[in-house]
Amino acid sequence: MALNTLPFDVNALSVFLSVCDQGTMAAAGRELGITQPAVSQVIADLESRIGVTLFDRSVRPVALTASGMVLRQYAGNLVADVHQISGRLRDMQRGRISHLRIGLVDSLSRALLRDMSAFLSECTEHAVVLAGLTESHAAALLARKIDFIVGVDDLEDVPGLERWPLFEEPYVLVCPQTVERPADRQGLAELLAELPFVRFSLRSRSGAEIERFLRRMRIEIPFGQEFDLPAGVLAGCLNGGVAISTPLCLNEAGYGPEMGLVVHPLPVAGFRRRLTLVARRREFGRLPLNLAETLRKSLKEQCLPSLVRQFAPFAATMRIMD
């Protein structure tokens, strides 16, 4: 569509909304600092371009027609969005933005929230951090209800996004302390058939990945307990169950050696989880990169040393991504 065929511009919508609020074109002119004839001309041009009558001028004060009421429903949001875009551009120019919404996967809350909070206080006026499942955050990102996500899904098939890998870790087997490491696929199948298998909910990305792993191993386990949260999976293990989890998930749940559990490598190597920051491309300048670098530093300096101490056999398989 050519620019000169657009039905209205933002200034015309602002004049229209002022007439709606003030009740007369003269009052709208006083509010806007322009003459009443100028207001009338703007409204007449707007009606001409749209091809509808917006005001019933036979009554005083002027009343909206049915078409005018429809436009009023949308015009306020359109004008507000334009002002928000203008403000965001000015904020980006000075390296600070007014509003940012981030979705953070649950298993990173303990590891990252303190340093994330410090970063956000330096670069945003209003930040909203929503903890939860990666799947729901991914949907919110695509619907523009969230600006960044930090989670397990990098949405590699979706165009228009930028991705900053943060951390990679192995999936591990969590069992009662008396259970020995299964030597092979058959041993894993027998263990999962013997003890209650505690699952991450299939609503979660990790839960879905674990189910795909079991299918590849041709291991079928009846459904028992499922949890969205790492703490729920750990609780099931404390009650005699066995689970597939990760060091970060266990850290988030408060795992400790005093719990009477043991963490074994899976008998099949290469089953890993990658955490990534995903943002819409080129909307926030260097902010996603700066946040990714902050989170990598936090993971390297604050989180990884603790994970290595607790899960020493897996030290070589946990790494900060570049």
Automatic annotation (TrEMBL):
<keyword id="KW-0805">Transcription regulation</keyword>
<dbReference type="InterPro" id="IPR036390">
    <property type="entry name" value="WH_DNA-bd_sf"/>
</dbReference>
<dbReference type="InterPro" id="IPR050950">
    <property type="entry name" value="HTH-type_LysR_regulators"/>
</dbReference>
<dbReference type="InterPro" id="IPR000847">
    <property type="entry name" value="LysR_HTH_N"/>
</dbReference>
<protein>
    <submittedName>
        <fullName>LysR family transcriptional regulator</fullName>
    </submittedName>
</protein>
<dbReference type="InterPro" id="IPR036388">
    <property type="entry name" value="WH-like_DNA-bd_sf"/>
</dbReference>
<dbReference type="InterPro" id="IPR005119">
    <property type="entry name" value="LysR_subst-bd"/>
</dbReference>
<feature type="domain" description="HTH lysR-type">
    <location>
        <begin position="8"/>
        <end position="65"/>
    </location>
</feature>
<dbReference type="GO" id="GO:0003700">
    <property type="term" value="F:DNA-binding transcription factor activity"/>
</dbReference>
<keyword id="KW-0804">Transcription</keyword>
<dbReference type="Pfam" id="PF00126">
    <property type="entry name" value="HTH_1"/>
</dbReference>
<comment type="similarity">
    <text>Belongs to the LysR transcriptional regulatory family.</text>
</comment>
<dbReference type="Pfam" id="PF03466">
    <property type="entry name" value="LysR_substrate"/>
</dbReference>
<dbReference type="GO" id="GO:0005829">
    <property type="term" value="C:cytosol"/>
</dbReference>
<dbReference type="GO" id="GO:0003677">
    <property type="term" value="F:DNA binding"/>
</dbReference>
<keyword id="KW-0238">DNA-binding</keyword>
